[in-house]
Structure formats: C-alpha cells, structure tokens
Amino acid sequence: MKNWHHTDRILAPSLLAADWGRVSEEVSRAVESGADWLHLDVMDGHFVDNVSFGPQMIQSINENNDVFLDVHLMISRPDHYLPRFIAAGSDMITVHVEAEHDVTNTLAEIRKAGVLAGLALNPATPFEKVVPYLDQIDLLLPMTVVPGFGGQSFMEDMMTKVEAAVAYREQHGLNFHIEVDGGITPLTAKIAAKAGANVLVAGSSAFGASDMKAAIAAMREA
Ligand code: DX5
Ligand code: ZN
User: How do residues 135-194 score in pLDDT, each as one tens digit?
Assistant: First the structure.
C-alpha cells in the first residue's frame, strides 16, 4: 500500500452518502472514480444522534477491495470497540477527543496494531484540547460540521483550527495529515486546502454526483 504524505492531496469519499443497497458497486464506483481513501463513518447513536454501521461492514469491504480504509469512529467508547475495528482491516482509525477514553492510550493501541491513528475534534471543541496529543497522531480531523449526518453546510470558521494545526506541525517538526469532513464541495475544498488541509472527505458531493469522477477531479484540482 502507498505511503501517504501530508503534502499529498487525498480525496476520501464518505460511504455514508452511498446507496447502501448496492454497497459493493458503490465502493467500486468510488475507486474507479479516483478515490484515494474510502471514508467510513461509524456512529453509535450515543456519541452522535445517528446509527450507521460497524466492523462487520468494514471487514467485508476490506475483503473485497484494496482501497485505503479511513475509519471515523463517532462512538462514545472507542477504546472498547477498537480491537474489532483493527481486526476488520482498518488502515486509519480516527477517534474523537471528546469521547470517554484515555486518548493517549487509545492512540497508542491503534499504532501498536500497525494502524494509523487519527484524532478528531467537534466544531465546539477548541484546538487547545488536541494539542497534548499532536505528537501521537498520524491525522488530525477538525470537523467542519456537527457530526452525525451528511449533507450539512461547511463551517468556514473551523479553518482557524486547520491553520493552527499547520503552524504547530511546522514549529514542532511533526508530520500528521489534516483532514476536513463535512460540507466539502469543489468550492469549500479550495478554502480548506488553502488553509492547509490535505485530506478532503466528501459524502454528498462525491456519491451524490452523477459523474463522480468529475466531482473528485474538481475537488482534487480546487
Ligand atoms: C458527518 C460525517 C461525514 C459525512 C460528510 O457526521 O462524519 O463524513 O459523511 O458528509 P457530507 O460530505 O455530505 O457533508
Ligand atoms: Zn466522517
């Protein structure tokens, strides 16, 4: 598998916006349209007000595809479920700083399994909350919508966190990716990339497009 660097522009369509009655065709459509990663939103109905899918879905996608699996855990106890998401074949596991767990320990457990470790923060959470962990992660995800649902509008205010993360990364010689998730379109992709985000998650604007290849290309070039 390719070794991704934070200077690479990475397009990660979110399966949440796919047609779930045809998951395998939808995954193939994303890969054939130029997706670099597949973003998988796991929701427990507790950390966020929605329920999606779990490790069994991820395992079955992993068994049938080589695409990089970017797993976003919007669940209250990521530490408890972690072994199952690791066993399912996740390539990146992102946990929330607001969840009920020992963040340092969870990140270490992810890396110990040879999986990349991501840390997400909600729009209401200040950048300062993730600072203690920035030397322990492979990816930072400042959410650009309140997590739970696709199809919401991009919160441009969150770009101050992206800029703060870029500055911190530079000052401390770190290498983590910066991902944005929520409301990404060719227009907002440009704003996010300009602020310094390199991983662009797109649900509705990717799977919702009749020409997904053109949609991904537009966000890659934005
Ligand atoms: C939101 C999820 C997102 C979602 C994005 O809770 O974390 O990954 O799929 O969807 P769009 O791109 O439609 O805003
Ligand atoms: Zn997500």
Answer: 999 999 999 999 999 999 999 999 999 999 999 999 999 999 999 999 999 999 999 999
User: Interior CA angle at 140 toward 81 and 181, to 5°?
Assistant: 85
Does ligand 1 have an atom closer than 6 angstroms to the CB of 96?
A: no
Q: How many domains does the chain divide into?
A: 1
- CB-count exposure of residue 98 (10 Å: 0-12, 13-18, 19+): middle
Ligand 1 centroid, distance to 12 Cα (angstroms): 11
Asked, for residue 5, whether it belongs to a domain, the answer is no
Q: What is the domain extent for residue 103?
A: 10-221
Residue found under tokens 């070794």: 3
- Residue 215 is part of a domain; what is its CATH number? 3.20.20.70
Q: Please check whether residue 202 lies inside any domain of the structure.
A: yes
